[in-house]
């Protein structure tokens, strides 16, 4: 019965997030180690449950394989180059954000970044000690499960970035099991220290204060983020609300956008912010692009229909907007801040 429930939960996990496969693999390592690498009843039950889960996952796996070119195009961003130092900074910052997240990024003022560095280092030290405490104070059956799930997910995401290059490991959504393990370790540390008998009252007060500080910081950061119209996790679409307001102020606007791995999802999200009068014209690539350069260099330049009061270009491809403007005998008037981390909108103006 319990293995049947595990199989159902695993199937739901596979269909929810592909990286659930890593969690299931970590479970297999855990079962094998605990059972002494013997093919006994528990190991066989795990293998059967996993086989059933994979069998149920085959339809979705088939869809992924049939559309592998589209999937590859949608994940090109993961191969963007960055420095090792930037990777380490992102890893440290993301560990801190699982407790406090006030929206600070590398683009924030230096004063705020310096002020944020000390709490982040303290949180890293707490997490490190919590993992050590979990491993030293609990039975192997307890700490091994947490540690293996954390390690398998982290290694599978981090190593490709370190060896081959990329920014996969800078995205917290791919490391949920690792971060959850860290939170479990910290929760166990605080609960044990606060409730431990025979510990000096002063020491217990210190751990109580630390618990209150962590919980208060979490609540405050949640209050800040829930009131924000956009957050740092939006990345390229961070300025969508401001862009949508600018478009809505026009009489009968048309928005032209090249569909690539960075703009399709973002323009769909922005469409929910636009008034019904705003029309979208999406440009399809001639064929699936295999590189970032192709995405920027090969879109088909569309014909702009008449009858619109204003025509805007939305995306990240300056090459596309320049060609579109040239075809329309126009120039691009930039309407939103332009940088490599956000999408932008420009207005076609007749020369």
Features:
single chain; 351 residues; 5-stranded mixed β-sheet; 60% helix; globular
Please characterize this protein's 3D structure.
By secondary structure, the protein is of the alpha/beta class. It has 3 domains: 1-74, no CATH class; 79-228, no CATH class; 234-350. Helices cover 60% and strands 8% of the residues. The protein has 13 helices and 5 strands. It has helices at 2-16, 20-34, 41-66, 68-74, 84-97, 110-137, 140-163, 176-195, 201-227, 240-248, 264-271, 292-297, 318-327; strands at 253-258, 279-283, 310-315, 330-334, 344-350. The chain has a 5-stranded mixed β-sheet, with helices on both faces. α11 (264-271) links the parallel β1 and β2 (279-283). α1 packs parallel to α3, α5 (84-97) crosses α6 and α8 packs antiparallel against α9. The model is unreliable at 287-299 (pLDDT under 50).
What is the strand and helix layout of this fold?
Layout: H1 2-16, H2 20-34, H3 41-66, H4 68-74, H5 84-97, H6 110-137, H7 140-163, H8 176-195, H9 201-227, H10 240-248, E1 253-258, H11 264-271, E2 279-283, H12 292-297, E3 310-315, H13 318-327, E4 330-334, E5 344-350
Parallel strand pairs: 1-2, 1-3
Antiparallel strand pairs: 3-5, 4-5
In short:
The chain has 351 residues and is α/β, with parallel strands linked by helices. The protein contains 13 helices and five strands.
The spatial strand order of the largest sheet comes to: 2-1-3-5-4
Report the radius of gyration as a whole number of Å: 25 Å
Q: Tell me the domain tally.
A: 3
What's the total helix number?
13
Q: Total number of β-strand segments?
A: 5
Oligomeric status of the shown chains?
A: single chain
Percentage of residues in helical conformation: 55-70%
Quote the distance from N terminus to C terminus.
73 Å
SS-based class: alpha/beta
Tell me about the largest β-sheet: 5 strands, mixed
> What is the H-and-E element order?
HHHHHHHHHHEHEHEHEE
How large is the share of residues in beta strands?
A: 5-15%
Give unreliable regions as ranges.
287-299
Overall form:
globular
**Residue-averaged pLDDT:** 83
């Amino acid at each position: 019965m319990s293995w049947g429930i595990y199989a159902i939960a695993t199937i739901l996990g596979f269909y929810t997030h592909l990286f659930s496969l890593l969690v299931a693999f970590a479970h297999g390592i855990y079962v094998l180690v605990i059972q002494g690498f013997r093919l006994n009843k528990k190991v066989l039950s795990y293998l059967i449950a996993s086989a059933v889960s994979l069998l149920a996952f085959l339809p979705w796996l088939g869809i992924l394989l049939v559309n592998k070119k589209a999937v590859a195009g949608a994940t090109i961003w993961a191969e963007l180059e960055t420095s090792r130092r930037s990777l380490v900074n992102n890893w440290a910052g993301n560990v801190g954000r699982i407790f406090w997240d006030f929206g600070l990024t590398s683009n924030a003022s230096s004063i705020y970044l310096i002020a944020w560095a000390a709490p982040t280092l303290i949180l890293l030290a707490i997490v490190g000690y919590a993992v050590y405490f979990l491993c030293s104070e609990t039975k192997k059956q307890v700490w091994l499960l947490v540690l293996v799930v954390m390690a398998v997910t982290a290694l599978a995401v981090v190593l490709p970035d370190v060896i081959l290059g990329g920014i996969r490991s800078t995205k917290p959504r791919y490391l949920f099991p690792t971060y959850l393990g860290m939170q479990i370790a910290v929760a166990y540390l605080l609960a044990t220290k606060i409730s431990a008998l025979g510990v000096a009252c002063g020491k217990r007060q210190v751990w109580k204060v630390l618990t209150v500080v962590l919980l208060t910081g979490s609540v405050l950061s949640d209050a800040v983020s829930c009131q924000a119209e956009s957050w740092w996790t939006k990345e390229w679409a961070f300025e969508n609300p401001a862009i949508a307001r600018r478009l809505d102020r026009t009489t009968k606007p048309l928005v032209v956008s090249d569909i690539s791995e960075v703009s399709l999802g973002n323009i769909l999200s922005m469409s929910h912010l636009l008034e019904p009068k705003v029309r979208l014209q999406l440009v399809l690539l001639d064929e699936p692009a295999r590189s970032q350069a192709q995405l920027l260099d090969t879109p088909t330049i569309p014909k702009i229909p008449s009858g619109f009061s204003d025509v805007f270009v939305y995306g990240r491809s300056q090459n596309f907007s320049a060609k579109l403007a040239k075809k329309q005998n126009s120039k691009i008037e930039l309407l939103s801040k332009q940088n490599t981390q956000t999408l932008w909108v420009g207005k076609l103006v007749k020369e």
